[in-house]
Amino acid sequence: MARAGKKNHGALRxxxxxxxxxxxxxxxxxxxxxxxxxxxxxxxxxRMYARGTRKPHGxxxxxxxxxxxxxxxxxxxxxxxxxxxxxxxxxxxxxxxxGYDMVFSERDDNxxxxxxxxxxxxxxxxxxxxxxxxxGIGNDQAFANAIKAQGMTYLGxxxxxxAEGEKVTISPGFVSQxxxxxxxxxxxxxxxxxxxxxxxIPQAVAYLPNLPDINRAAHxxxxxxxxxxxxxxxxxxxxxxxxxxxxxxxxxxAVTSAAAGGALTSLTLADYGVAQAKIGPVAxxxxxxxxxxxxxxxxxxxxxxxxxxDVIAHRVxxxxxxxxxxxxxxxxxxxxxxxxxxxxxxxxxVEIHANAIDNILTGDFIQRSEITAGLERxxxxxMGIAISxxxxxxxxxxxxxxxxxxxxxxxxxxQYLLVADGLLLGVLFPVVMVVVDYAILAGYKYLTEGRLxxxxxxxxxxxxxxxxxxxxxxxxxxxxxxxxxxxMSILFSDIVGFTSRSERTAPEELVALLNxxxxxxxxxxLRSGGVVDKLMGDGIMxxxxxxxxxxxxxxxxxxxxxxxxxxxxxxxRVDPRFVDIDIGIGxxxxxxxxxxxxxxxxxxxxxxxxxxxxxxxxxxxxxxxxVHLLVNRQTTEEAADGFVxxxxxxxxxxxxxxxxxxxxxxxxxxGPVEAAFYEQFAAALAALEKGSTHQxxxxxxxxxxxxxxxxxxxxxxxxxxxxSGNGSLMGRFNPFRxxxxxxxxxRHLLFELDTK
Length: 756
Description:
Elements: H1 3-31, H2 34-51, E1 60-65, H3 67-73, H4 80-92, E2 97-100, H5 109-123, H6 128-135, H7 139-150, E3 153-157, E4 159-162, E5 188-191, E6 203-207, H8 212-217, E7 220-223, E8 236-238, E9 241-243, E10 246-248, H9 251-259, E11 265-270, E12 273-279, E13 282-284, E14 291-293, E15 305-307, H10 308-312, H11 318-321, E16 325-330, E17 338-341, E18 344-348, H12 349-362, H13 370-393, H14 396-421, H15 428-460, H16 466-474, E19 484-495, H17 498-503, H18 507-527, E20 531-536, E21 539-544, H19 553-574, E22 583-598, E23 603-608, H20 610-625, E24 629-632, H21 633-639, E25 643-652, E26 660-668, H22 675-689, H23 693-706, H24 711-725, E27 750-752
Parallel strand pairs: 1-15, 1-16, 2-3, 2-16, 3-7, 5-11, 6-9, 22-24, 25-27
Antiparallel strand pairs: 4-6, 8-14, 9-10, 11-12, 12-13, 17-18, 19-21, 19-22, 20-21, 22-23, 24-26, 25-26
Helix pairs in contact: 1-13, 1-15, 4-7, 5-6, 9-12, 13-14, 13-15, 14-15, 15-16, 18-19, 19-21, 22-23, 23-24
């Protein structure tokens, strides 16, 4: 079975596990959405804070009961005559609308004292009516008169909202029936077909009204209840609460409608809750509960604040308040009404309302709907499948990069949509999908690939250099289990005369000798990037070009062979056991089949094919020619220059129909090898090839006097002399012809040897 097939099978299995996890996480999130809800809210806070400050539209101002006002006007609560003076001042500033983020449900303290005196006089039978007339109207009435004179003042009130399944006890002061004038409600309420019973929206069981005189003087009243999330942070305004049969308006909607010339407020209900809420033509982005996310403009005091004392004293420029919606609320630290919001933990409640009004006036909302929720779910699924594919088919480092790019890219897109278009896409679920999917799949792949890498290391530790093994472990695609055709160089080496030596040497000594020899030679092969295929007694088979890529297998093999010969020479000098040891090495370069061959339980990584057989035959020829290193001509050509090479000629080896040209590699150029001898030999063969047989014979005989023991030289001379004796020397004998000329009985230099 090919490695590519195993890789694909493993990748598909990893991808399948990843897709299964995506489905599982999707189902868990669908059934238990609250698992991530609180954390998602925190990410929303961070994103809002990171967005920075936006300048308000400029139509809303806050007149604050702040520390400065308290220091100038006295401790809060003030006599309502102070608020009456505030109303008179706001009227002179020609503000458009006034909204009080507070309730006046209890009588003024001075009025209570006055009433107690009147009651006491009446009980004593004294003329209390004359005292009342002398004292004038009360503080509450003065405030009511000022509100009525201003004409566009709206008051707030709180509701007591019933939680689902809660048994409610009405709080003191709250009433369960509306008192005239009733709180403001939506002008138009429409129900979609299919509704049976009240829609599932927040329901109030009671409210705390303002004092009757003050309530009647106001232009209208709206609730100021603002819902918190599970972490007690204010992020939204409740745009509708049902109280009895009324769908009440919040204070912010009442003052905005008034500022817009009495814009119609409308509500559309469905069986799931609120389908739509509008003011004039502007649709409010509410959820099914009627909540609208507040698009906060910035931290506290982003809106203009003016002290009550400064307004009463007319120290505020007229242009700062003219034609503005003015919200009156408390911002002093000791008064309360400060809350946690995405923009800070000490945020005045009145400014929450100011932000919401500014959103409505500008139409600049944060919108989260079923569409954005659907996009979030789609993004989570797509990113989950994408990271599964990345882990399955990419390396650990690249899949980590892919995960980081997906997460950062999605966060950037989500933040851009929030900042540019006010679209709120949740980020936590897609990010959790990628992180969890990646972590589990990467861990799974690490464990499975770790076992596979350990298998590779164990399988090749006896064949390959550790550096080569590590490259294969990191890129196992270079290894195909089962066999593949590769261009390779094959090396065979044998100890000359080892059989006879083994017969006269004790087994223990022979084994020790072999161990020393093999250790030295195998180390050279592994360091050169070669693979030790087999150890056959005293013989070694090795190859270059697989399983990893070798730039020049032929050159690597030849250089390794020369190093083996040099190492043997060193051993002869330092170890007496090697004095009479000699080896022959044969190398063949060409195509071969390499891979794991054997059964399921036991197999070897090996090379087979014609090139392997040729290398073995060439190694056997070293005995015949009495040289140390023989290679086929393709090895010589591919190894390139830098070696001292001698053309031996063409041989017909066992198992091959055609003759093979072989060369002797004597050493590296510039080394200790006598290059002049081999150059003269090559010149003699060149003369022979040109037909100058006599000149070639003279040159070869001269070389024979220099090296009478050189076997290839002797063979050439023997055949030349034999051809001369047959009368074929002059002009007819050519040892480079492919076929002999049997007519003259001459034998050309075609060695027909039955090797190995």
